[in-house]
């Protein structure tokens, strides 16, 4: 069983289905968290992602080490590794809360799409922190996707040259969420690189376990001090759904980061925009304006350019 896992990890394209799964699981988590936000508030709904996801992550780690024939040892943890994971954990909390606030300001698909400015910002932070330079095609894709983001940032009644449009709350929260997710992604990728030659399954599992433990302890204490944990436990069904899907998504993201470059992983993850659109139309019965549809199309065009589909 362990040998089969090792052989799977060596497949050069495996990061693609893992990333697609991560995007799908994240869409389910976002939908559940949006419902929780109205019930318990954005900060408690943010905590749910980590606290209720931690048990699944622990089970996954124990399962990996309990596989028949497993000889896996603890990874070579170091201060730089813990620093990268800690940075990623902090900015993930910030980004999740900003995303939930964005969802309260605008409809579901648009809020998630605005957070996808993360893909553009990952390139910027990647140059600064990981010294990874984007290719010419990647720059073109970023420009196209940026046009889509600008179209989505406009309020329904706004005009292209309206100062109010550029300063709308939906645009602000979406961009903040994108920045937070970008920095957290760089942190988690940096952590995977700091571990060196470790199985991506093990690297991803420990990364999520450490990050969620820090997030659950830190944010759990803060939420408990402010208003208590009772509301999220009373809504345990939806909390468990949000947490388990969040943990599944995080495990898949971290594993993909250990397998492939962060820019490609997060760019492919833009497919979440399509998933969110389907949820918005089919589940939440929301309707997008023509400008929003054009904006989403431009974002997907940027994705296609990045993957050399055009």
Describe this structure in words.
The chain is mainly α. The protein has one domain (21-306). It has helices at residues 2-9, 15-40, 42-51, 54-65, 79-105, 108-115, 117-130, 136-153, 163-166, 169-195, 200-226, 230-234, 236-259, 262-268, 272-282, 290-306. The longest helix has 27 residues, at 79-105. The termini are far apart.
Beta strand %: under 5%
**In DSSP terms, counting alpha (H) and pi (I) runs of 4 or more, how many helices?**
16
Query: How is the quaternary structure best described?
Result: single chain
Q: How far is it from the N-terminal to the C-terminal residue, by CA?
A: 39 Å
Give a topology summary.
Layout: H1 2-9, H2 15-40, H3 42-51, H4 54-65, H5 79-105, H6 108-115, H7 117-130, H8 136-153, H9 163-166, H10 169-195, H11 200-226, H12 230-234, H13 236-259, H14 262-268, H15 272-282, H16 290-306
Helix pairs in contact: 2-3, 2-13, 2-15, 3-5, 3-11, 3-13, 4-11, 4-13, 5-6, 5-10, 5-11, 6-10, 6-15, 7-10, 7-14, 8-16, 10-11, 11-13
């Amino acid at each position: 069983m362990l040998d089969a896992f090792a052989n799977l990890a060596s497949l050069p394209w495996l990061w693609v289905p893992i990333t697609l799964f991560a995007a799908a699981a994240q869409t389910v988590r976002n939908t559940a968290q949006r419902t929780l936000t109205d019930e318990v508030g954005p900060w408690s709904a943010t905590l749910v992602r980590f606290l209720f996801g931690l048990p699944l992550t622990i089970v996954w780690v124990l399962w990996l080490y309990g596989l028949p024939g497993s000889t896996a040892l603890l990874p070579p943890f170091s201060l730089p590794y813990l620093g990268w994971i800690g940075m990623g954990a902090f900015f993930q909390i910030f980004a999740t809360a900003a995303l939930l606030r964005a969802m309260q300001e605008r409809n579901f698909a648009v809020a998630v799409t605005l957070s996808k400015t993360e893909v553009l910002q990952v390139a910027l932070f990647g140059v600064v922190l990981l010294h990874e330079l984007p290719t010419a095609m990647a720059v073109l894709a970023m420009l196209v996707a940026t046009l889509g983001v600008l179209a989505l940032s406009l309020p329904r009644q706004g005009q292209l040259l309206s100062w109010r449009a550029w300063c709308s709350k939906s645009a602000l929260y979406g961009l903040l969420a994108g920045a937070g997710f970008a920095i957290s992604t760089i942190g988690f990728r940096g952590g995977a690189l700091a571990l060196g030659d470790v199985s991506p399954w093990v690297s991803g599992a420990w990364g999520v376990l450490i990050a969620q433990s820090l997030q659950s302890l830190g944010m759990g204490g803060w939420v408990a001090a402010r208003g208590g944990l009772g509301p999220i436990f009373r809504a345990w069904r939806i909390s468990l759904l949000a947490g388990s899907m969040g943990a599944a998504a995080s495990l898949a993201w971290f594993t993909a980061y250990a397998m492939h470059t962060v820019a490609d992983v997060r760019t492919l993850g833009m497919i979440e925009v399509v998933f969110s659109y389907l949820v918005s139309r089919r589940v939440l019965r929301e309707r997008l304006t023509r400008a929003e549809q054009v904006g989403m199309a431009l974002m997907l065009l940027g994705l296609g350019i990045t993957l050399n589909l055009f």
